[in-house]
Amino acid sequence: GSPTHVVDYPVFSPDGKQIAYAWTTPSQVDQLRVIGLDGSAPRVLYDNPEHNVQPAAWSQDGRFILAVFYLKDNTRQIALVSATDGAARVLKTLDWRVPAQMVFSPDARYVAYDLPGPEAPFKRDIFVIASDGSWEVRLVEHPADDVLAGWSPDGRTILFGSDRAGSYGLWAVPMAGGQSQGPPVLVKRDAGRLAGLGFGRNGAFYYGAGGAMEDVYIAEIDPDSGRVVQAPGRATERLVGGTSSGAWSADGRQLVYASRQRGGPGRGSMGLSVLTLATGEQRDILPQLSS
Question: Each residue of 13-33: b (16+ CB within 10 Å) or e?
């Protein structure tokens, strides 16, 4: 049977008290919703029947949620949605192409995103656009596939995955004022195709690695040397092959992810789960998302 509901793309607020996510309505239109981690009822932040919405990041000051709008004419838009009243501002209109990753700079003055070439869907470059839409620069341009991973908490480094060395590795670009300050530097070889989950306050970078069975993984690296401190491992063994779209809380203590609720209402139902790293506690908040 078809899923009774679909929820995806969870993103923690910077204070760790709320989660923004996409909710698919019965009419197959995605709303942007926000739910409190305390179990309070979700609220619809943004709802436009003319297009779907996919949240990507929350600004560090808590004021804006970065999102992609999917328009009915098959074009896409990068937009900022007010976390207070849902007012939306479009930064850039794209064609059919969609960023795989988008992140704010720590001061929210810039947005970085990746985008495939118009004739090379598996060869991405990385761009930085001012959050007021006033200017844009192509930060990483290379024949390889370059996928955005994250922006360091001090604003001085953008990480991205690239196969330019023959296999996917993790590379770093020094940054200042939204501009590159030097050529990319390899920090980890053979990282695999990764999806950045963000940085913890301890400077560790977290990422997920996909496969035939999709799971959220956690790894820890030394941001200065690029040395792996903790090898990648599944965030949870409770739902092997059934977790995706992980996002880290700002304090690095909790991970939220979309989970396939095998025992939930309806076959294939998707919900949200929260993992507390220190205790290993995993809590489903699916009941609050059932309407």
Answer: bbebebbbbbbbeeeebbbbb
